[in-house]
Write a structure and sequence with these properties.
Blueprint lengths: L9 H12 L6 E5 L6 H13 L12 H7 L6 E3 L10 H9 L12 E5 L7 H12 L5 E7 L7 H4 L3 E4 L5 H11 L4 H11 L3 H8 L4 H14 L5 H12 L5 H21 L11 H10 L2 H19 L4 H13 L2
Bound molecules: zinc ion (ZN).
Length: 328
C-alpha cells in the first residue's frame, strides 16, 4: 500500500508530500472521516513513506523498511491497540505511547504512532497523550484517526494538523467497482449511491456474500411496512436477524430508502434515487410522507444504531424501530 494505490483523498496526499519535500513534518496529525473512508490507508502510506530509506515522497517499496511497513512488522511504526471495543484507556496510552516514545527509534528516522478510533480515548487517556503531544521528542510523530472531532479535547486538536477527508468522486468509485471488482454497471451504480463518496463502504456492500439477500430483505421490509401486522413484523425481524453481523449495512440501506423518498420529493427525478427498480413504490410513499415524518424516520434509524452499538438486544431494537417506522 502506498499513495499511488489510494483512490481519492488527493488533498491529503498532496499535503503529506509537500510537507516531506519542505521537510516540515508535524509531530501530530488528526485524520478525520467516517468509517471505512480510507483513513488507515492514508496513515499507513504516510508512515511507510516517512520511514523509507530512500527518503522520497513515495516509498521505494524495495528497502527493508518498506518491507517491514508493508507486512506490519516495522519496529518504529506502532499501531496502538485496545482491549475493550468501546474505549481506549489511560493505561493503554501510557504503556503503548507515553512510556515508549522516550526510547529512541530502533533504526529509522522517526518513531510513528498510529492511534485508530482516537475518539474512543477517554478523558484520562487524552490527558496522558496531551503531555506527549505538547513536548514530543524530535523523532516522534503521532497520527490520530477519528470518525469525529467532538470527542477529542480542544487542547489536543489545537496541537495537531487536522486533515478532513472528502468524498471520493463518483467517477473514481464507479471505475474501481467496475474495473477492479468487475461489478455490473447496475450493481456498481447501486453501491456507489449507497456509499455517498466512501469507497470502503461501497466495497463492503459490493463484496458482501449475501449482497442480493441483504438488499432484497430491506426492500421487502420497506415496501410492506405500512401493511404489516404483528406476525409479519416478527417475520421481518427473523429475516433481518440473518444480517445481525452486517447490521450497520442493513440500517444504512434502510436509511437510503428514506433518502430516496426525500430526493424524489425534492427533485421529482428518478435518476438520483438508489432503489430505481422500486420507483413506483417510492413515489407512492413520497406522496403520503411529509418532510417532518421522513426526518422522524431517519432519527428512529439513527437511534436504533446507537442502541445496537450499546449492545441492546437485536430483536428489541428492531421491533421498536419497525413500530416507529410504521407510524404515519
Ligand atoms: Zn523504501
Amino acid at each position: 500500500m502506498d499513495f499511488t494505490q489510494i483512490i481519492g483523498h488527493e488533498d491529503i496526499i498532496k499535503h503529506f508530500k509537500s510537507s516531506i519535500e519542505m521537510d516540515r513534518i508535524s509531530h501530530a496529525y488528526i485524520i478525520c472521516g467516517e468509517e471505512d473512508c480510507g483513513k488507515k490507508s492514508l496513515a499507513k502510506s504516510f508512515a511507510k513513506t516517512l520511514q523509507c530509506e530512500k527518503e522520497g515522497t513515495e516509498p521505494c517499496n524495495e528497502c527493508q523498511s518498506c518491507h517491514q511497513a508493508e507486512t506490519g512488522n516495522h519496529p518504529d511504526i506502532i499501531r496502538v491497540s485496545h482491549e475493550k471495543a468501546a474505549v481506549i484507556t489511560v493505561d493503554e496510552i501510557r504503556e503503548q505511547v507515553v512510556n515508549s516514545i522516550s526510547v529512541k527509534p530502533y533504526k529509522s528516522k522517526y518513531k510513528i504512532y498510529i492511534i485508530e478510533d482516537a475518539q474512543l480515548m477517554n478523558q484520562q487517556a487524552q490527558n496522558a497523550l496531551l503531555k506527549t503531544i505538547e513536548e514530543p521528542p524530535e523523532y516522534g510523530i503521532i497520527i490520530l484517526l477519528t470518525t469525529g472531532m467532538d470527542k477529542l479535547l480542544p487542547t489536543i486538536v489545537s496541537r495537531c494538523i487536522v486533515l478532513n477527508t472528502k468524498p471520493v468522486k463518483e467517477r473514481d468509485i464507479m471505475d474501481y467497482l467496475t474495473h477492479n471488482l468487475g461489478l455490473s454497471e447496475e450493481k456498481a451504480v447501486f453501491c456507489m449511491e449507497y456509499a455517498q463518496g466512501n469507497l470502503g463502504k461501497a466495497i463492503k456492500l459490493a463484496t458482501n456474500d449475501d449482497y442480493a439477500m441483504l438488499v432484497n430483505s430491506v426492500i421487502k421490509l420497506e415496501t410492506n411496512i405500512y401493511d404489516m401486522d404483528m406476525e409479519s413484523i416478527q417475520e421481518a425481524i427473523t429475516d433481518a436477524e440473518h444480517f445481525k453481523f452486517n447490521v450497520s449495512e442493513y440500517l444504512d440501506l434502510m436509511m437510503m430508502w428514506y433518502r430516496d423518498i426525500l430526493m424524489l420529493k425534492v427533485t421529482g427525478k428518478i435518476d438520483k434515487i438508489m432503489f430505481k427498480d422500486q420507483y413506483s413504490i417510492i413515489k407512492k410513499q413520497a406522496s403520503y410522507l411529509s418532510y417532518n415524518e421522513l426526518e422522524k424516520k431517519s432519527q428512529a434509524i439513527e437511534k436504533a444504531k446507537t442502541r445496537l452499538n450499546a449492545n441492546a438486544k437485536f430483536e428489541d431494537v428492531m421491533k421498536l424501530l419497525i413500530m416507529s417506522l410504521k407510524e404515519i
